[in-house]
Specification:
By secondary structure, the chain is of the alpha/beta class. The protein has 2 domains: 2-130, no CATH class; 189-275, Alpha-Beta Plaits (2-Layer Sandwich). The chain has 9 helices and 13 strands. The chain has helices at residues 14-25, 54-61, 66-78, 91-100, 112-115, 118-131, 140-143, 189-199, 235-254, and strands at 2-7, 29-32, 35-38, 41-45, 83-88, 108-111, 134-136, 152-160, 166-175, 206-217, 220-230, 258-270, 273-275. It has a 6-stranded mixed β-sheet, with helices on both faces. α8 (189-199) packs across α9. The protein starts with a strand and ends with a strand.
């Protein structure tokens, strides 16, 4: 196995450049902030960028957690990786990662300054410092679940193959980790209500929502919902189906982290009339 490393200070664009570098050098796997990535797909690990604190993020990135380390070691062996690119902020860090993952020592270290000019590094640093944006070198749909409720934007990268055209070289996911979160985006409660209510309209026994409360917490949202149920159907089964459908449609549409969904029958429908 050939082991390479891309080294540079935090926020200088290492993740952004990693897939292009790996493609140019024929490297099949990338280790980046706790993830094992191959062919634009996360195959093992947990991203350090989802950690709540900077210290926890660093520990995750260097595979300090034994279960995390074992998972990635097993994946490296089962995938029969013949080459790996490790991303890190120092020579010591990338060598420590190689040792912990039970792979050969780093054979070649590439500096971010070798593959990025000063302007590119400055832009990446500014984006990190002012906007708190980080890049994970996989498409959005591969990483979405790890960052429920936080900003995710697909970034398409194009490379000049010749003078006449540009070709897409892959996608990356821009995320705003908890520990560097400097701003936010909002989805109105009314929007969540409309998505949830519409999603439940086909459920037998569901006759509408009478209350939809969103409780915002740092780690996600909790929902308290009152509905009208038709007694011609099994009410308990209706409740279960409504709860699951709300989770499914909101997760699909918003990727928000839902901590709890409480559904209560407050009204019943009997022969077409609603009673409290």
């Amino acid at each position: 196995m050939k082991v390479y490393a891309l080294v540079g200070p935090s926020g200088t664009g290492k993740s952004h450049k990693s897939t292009l570098l790996a493609s140019d050098m024929g490297i099949t796997h990338i280790i980046d902030d706790g993830l094992l990535i191959s062919e634009n797909r996360v195959i093992a690990g947990t991203s350090a960028k989802k950690e709540a604190t900077k210290i926890a993020s660093i520990k995750r990135a260097i595979f300090d957690d034994n279960e995390h380390r074992k998972e990635v070691v097993k994946a490296i062996k089962s995938s029969k990786a013949d080459s790996i690119l490790i991303l890190g902020t120092s020579d010591k860090m990338v060598n420590e990662i190689a040792q912990r993952l039970e792979i050969p020592s780093v054979q070649k270290i590439i500096r971010i300054t070798d593959i990025s000019d000063e302007e590119e590094i400055a832009i990446a640093t500014k984006s990190r410092q002012e906007k708190g944006k980080h890049v994970i070198p996989v498409p959005t749909f591969e990483i979405k679940k790890d960052f429920a409720g936080y900003l995710l934007d697909p970034l398409y990268i194009f490379r000049r193959r010749d003078k006449s055209k540009y070709e897409p070289d892959g996608t990356k996911t821009i995320v705003r980790p908890t520990f560097s979160y400097l701003g936010g985006y909002t989805i109105s409660n009314n929007t969540l209500f409309q998505i949830a209510n519409y999603g439940c309209t086909a459920i037998n026994g569901f006759e509408g929502m009478t209350r939809f409360r969103v409780i915002n917490r740092p780690e996600g949202i909790a929902l308290e919902i009152n509905i009208t149920a038709n007694i011609d159907y099994d009410i308990l089964e209706t409740l279960k189906m409504v709860q699951q459908k709300i989770y499914n449609v909101l997760d699909h549409a918003t990727a928000l982290n839902m901590l709890r969904i409480d559904v209560t029958v407050k009204n019943v429908m009997i022969n077409g009339e609603v009673f409290p």
